[in-house]
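Saturday, quiet lab. Running sequence design on the structure tokens for the scaffold JK sent over.
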């Protein structure tokens, strides 16, 4: 359990800062191209890890289908929505939308796979979503979102929903016997390919910025935000359940909102303490519950 907690903390710290790192790429390169460069590089690194550690890269038909579904929803649709949303609203608000993933995962796996979860897990996931809602309420109200901001929030919620569906395909890959690293490498490859096809059809400019800010953000998002964080995430999901893993989505906004406040001028008041308390209580309930 200690390793799971460390993994959750590391993922939350990494993903809590990647939301802001994405803003370093906006305006430099078209979002579609940035997604291709990010996950294309990440997939190459993961395949390199497989070769270095002698992990089997080849997948069977069922494993490839699961990886393709995971790639479509996690790395193509979800991040396309994320990059589009961050062009309209602050990174902290985008991160807030992902707080609902634990609850989404519980519902999806209950409906599709008939998985049962204890009341403490349901309560913990609900408290996490409620806590982040309280935490972000001041920010959302203070932002006085217009039509563009409302679209941004909608895109962020759609991204969270797509990531939830991606978890289901990752679970199918697990059931089919695929390893975490090769499955993630193939999923990123499929996602990158789908986004690249979309870019070719829509006439995207495939240039890349060589400015220090863009290169640093690309390396950080590829190595830390994609390779390290996703491998940890799916490892936790397989060992402790997708609900605990997706609870990272409730902890991430705490960091993302702090980063947003420091670097983007976002402000939030007393509600932050109440929100943080609810999230931490929910985290304790989820962690202490039996594996789901």
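Result came back. Writing it out in full:
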């Amino acid at each position: 359990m200690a390793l799971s907690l460390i993994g959750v903390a590391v993922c939350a710290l990494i993903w809590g800062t990647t939301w802001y790192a994405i803003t370093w790429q906006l305006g430099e390169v078209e979002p579609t191209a940035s997604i291709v460069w990010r996950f294309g590089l990440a997939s190459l690194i993961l395949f390199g890890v497989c070769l270095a550690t002698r992990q089997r890269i080849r997948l069977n038909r069922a494993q490839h289908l699961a990886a393709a579904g995971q790639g479509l929803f996690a790395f193509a649709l979800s991040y396309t929505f994320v990059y589009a949303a961050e062009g309209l609203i602050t990174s902290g608000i985008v991160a807030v939308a992902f707080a609902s993933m634990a609850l989404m995962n519980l519902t999806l796996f209950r409906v599709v796979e008939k998985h049962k979860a204890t009341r403490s897990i349901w309560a913990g996931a609900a408290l996490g979503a409620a806590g982040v809602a309280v935490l972000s309420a001041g920010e959302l109200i203070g932002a006085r979102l217009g039509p563009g901001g409302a679209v941004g929030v909608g895109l962020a919620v759609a991204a969270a929903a797509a990531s939830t569906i991606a978890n289901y395909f990752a679970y199918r890959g697990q059931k089919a016997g695929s390893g975490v690293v090769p499955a993630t490498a193939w999923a990123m490859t499929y996602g990158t390919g789908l986004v690249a096809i979309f870019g070719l059809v829509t006439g995207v400019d495939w240039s890349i910025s060589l400015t220090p800010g863009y290169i640093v953000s690309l390396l950080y998002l590829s190595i830390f935000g994609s390779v390290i964080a996703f491998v940890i995430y799916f490892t936790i999901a397989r060992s402790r359940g997708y609900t605990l893993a997706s609870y990272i989505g409730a902890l991430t906004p705490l960091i993302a909102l702090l980063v947003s406040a420091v670097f983007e001028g976002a402000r939030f008041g007393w509600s932050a303490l109440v929100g943080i308390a609810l999230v931490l209580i929910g985290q304790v309930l989820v962690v202490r519950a039996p594996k789901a």
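Notes for JK: The mean pLDDT is 82. The longest helix spans residues 147-175. Ask whether to fix the surface positions before the next round.
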